[in-house]
Amino acid sequence: MKSLVLFLLLVTGSMAAFSQSQSELNKQAGQEYKEADKKLNDIYQLILKDYAANKAFIKNLKDAQRIWIQFRDAQVQAMYPAAAKSYGSAFPMCRAGYLTELTNQRTEALRVWLNGLPQGDVCTGSIGDKLGNQ
Q1: Is the entire prediction scored with pTM above 0.85?
Q2: Per-residue pLDDT for 14 more than 50?
């Protein structure tokens, strides 16, 4: 019996050490979004630098990025159309998580301009055309 009580005390104490308040979870999710957004901006800036000589591409990329931001915001609004308070205390965490997911998807979509496509792919378009020769 003593072993069972001791075991339960240890388990309960361990669980308390790992628990986080909703406020902490919200803050953590917000930080993860900030990191994802920074990574996206870093990739975007590298592409702008690498492809600076391809003026047509740069113009179109900037247009696409501006429109993507509008899409991202509209997507979040569609996901959470009601007032924030109606989703409860977890809303900041959920919203930041969704923003992180969308941002990571965009980062991967842009990364191909830096990493290229598999050899033999004939549908590369502007990918790799840093001088605007196509």
Answers
A1: no
A2: no
